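Incident log, support desk, overnight shift.

02:14 A customer reports that sequence design results differ from what the structure should imply. Their input is reproduced verbatim below. On-call engineer (initials T.W.) acknowledged and began investigating.
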């Protein structure tokens, strides 16, 4: 069996039930519902006091095992991708312990005792790095075993901030194996990029005082971010990852946009991946093809911008790290291309080349908010589940996964659907996973964010892991301060 026949065989999703309806949130906050709907989405989920990044991960893993009839003893790699971990010592093994306990309760064998349990962290890209390492594991010393990658995160933003409507929480688990049932991955075809951006998006565990002495406060849950600059970083790093993929495969960017059947990307909110892929499309037209230049010129003419000036801007991109200072943070690094893109996105040929390739699975994603590491695999699952019913994709077609993590790094990974992929996609049950929604009132939402009881909410968890209690003992012969204890509710 060739090393290229390794890939994804299944995906399972878990999201907590607590839903914020963004139309109602706009009424509470005075925001423009039309703008929020078009730019962000229609809703998001948040965890309750009984949820944690580890319980959500374990719930997704257990669903994956059940939905795909996985023999737990064959799983020798369990990777956790997250930027929301609350334990700085252990990660994936915490979820493994929960899953093992639940499997034993059901009279089943646990996951292999010889299972590797790494955690991967690089903002929203940690899950994709975990997938790449799972594939490498199976192609080297994994032999005939299986790998599971789970992405679990909580995206919280300060109330009243621009990030508040883009919150979200959930976990997505993926089965990775040789002779995959869904899509094969050849990492030799993928593209990578990274560049350090200091103030794009960060989550410092502790902040020091102005003189750098001591620790002022804990702030790990709420990110420090500069939204406009972050959007520019996303586009920039994605472009470099795509260019690396084109170069490694010796393919034309313009031809690739014609060939690829569907694209799934990291999705902080609706408009960001749309804009990013649209700009990548304009860059593909700006390559050496005369036909591409002619198409790009039509967009430039409509925007009142010189083609030569746009090509020059594409050729001489600024170093975004230089813009990450207070005096320049709001500068638009690609002003002419951005101007052309605003006009181009209204054109039917652009919409066919860009937006049509991102259409699959959109409706459920507008309800999920930002899942950080889980955003890309959740969209992939939602899209393939839809395509399995509609027949819009077929075996051997190439689909493109674009992962991104602030800070900054990006991955462009092409995958190819395999024969019979529809059966594996039919077991994902994304829509079933989202059917547990409980709409929060304004008072309940505020109480949840402030850690207070949510009055009038009668939620009884079922068939899932919960946080039972948190340890507080700190004695000479026993300590468990801050350690979460978990319980599986049948």
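02:41 Re-run completed on a clean worker. Output:
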């Amino acid at each position: 069996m060739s090393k290229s026949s390794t890939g994804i065989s299944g995906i399972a999703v878990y999201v907590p039930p607590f839903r914020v309806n963004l139309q109602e949130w706009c009424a509470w906050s005075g925001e423009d519902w039309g703008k929020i709907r078009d730019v962000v989405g229609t809703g998001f989920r948040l965890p309750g006091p009984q949820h944690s990044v580890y319980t959500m991960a374990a719930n997704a893993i257990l669903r994956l095992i059940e939905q795909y009839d996985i023999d737990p003893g064959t799983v020798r790699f369990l990777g956790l991708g997250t930027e929301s971990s609350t334990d700085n010592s252990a990660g994936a093994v915490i979820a493994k312990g929960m899953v093992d306990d639940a499997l034993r309760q059901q009279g089943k064998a646990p996951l292999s005792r010889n299972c590797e349990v790494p955690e991967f962290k690089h903002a929203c890209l940690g899950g994709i790095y975990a997938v790449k390492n799972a594939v490498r594991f199976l192609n080297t010393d994994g032999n005939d075993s299986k790998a599971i990658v789970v992405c679990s995160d909580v995206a919280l933003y300060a109330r009243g901030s621009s990030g508040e409507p883009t919150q979200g929480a959930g976990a997505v688990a993926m089965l990775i194996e040789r002779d995959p049932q869904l899509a094969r991955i050849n990492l030799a075809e993928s593209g990578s990029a990274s560049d350090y951006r200091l103030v794009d998006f960060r989550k410092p565990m502790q902040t020091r005082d102005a003189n750098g002495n001591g620790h002022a406060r804990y702030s790990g849950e709420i990110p420090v971010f500069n939204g406009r600059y972050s959007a520019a970083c996303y586009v920039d790093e994605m472009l470099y990852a795509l260019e690396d993929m084109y170069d490694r495969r010796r393919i034309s960017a313009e031809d690739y946009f014609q060939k690829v059947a569907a694209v799934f990307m990291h999705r902080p909110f609706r408009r960001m991946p749309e804009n990013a892929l649209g700009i990548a499309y304009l860059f593909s037209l700006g390559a050496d093809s005369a036909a591409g230049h002619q198409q790009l010129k039509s967009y430039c003419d409509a925007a009142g911008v010189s083609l030569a000036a746009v090509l020059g801007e594409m050729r001489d991109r600024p170093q975004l790290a230089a813009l990450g200072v207070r005096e320049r943070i709001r500068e638009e690094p690609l002003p002419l291309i951005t101007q052309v893109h605003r006009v181009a996105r209204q054109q039917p040929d652009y919409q066919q080349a860009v937006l049509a390739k991102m259409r699959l699975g959109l409706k459920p994603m507008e309800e999920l908010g930002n899942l950080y590491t889980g955003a890309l695999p959740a969209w992939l699952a939602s899209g393939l589940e839809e395509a399995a019913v509609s027949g819009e994709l077929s075996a051997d077609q190439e689909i493109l996964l674009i992962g991104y993590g602030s800070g900054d790094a990006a991955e462009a990974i092409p995958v190819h659907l395999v024969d019979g992929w529809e059966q594996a996609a039919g077991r994902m049950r994304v829509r079933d996973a989202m059917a547990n929604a409980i709409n929060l009132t304004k008072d309940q939402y505020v109480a949840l964010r402030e850690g207070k009881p949510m009055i009038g909410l009668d939620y009884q968890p079922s068939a899932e892991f919960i946080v039972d209690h948190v340890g507080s003992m700190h004695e000479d012969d026993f300590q468990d301060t801050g350690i979460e204890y978990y319980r599986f509710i049948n």
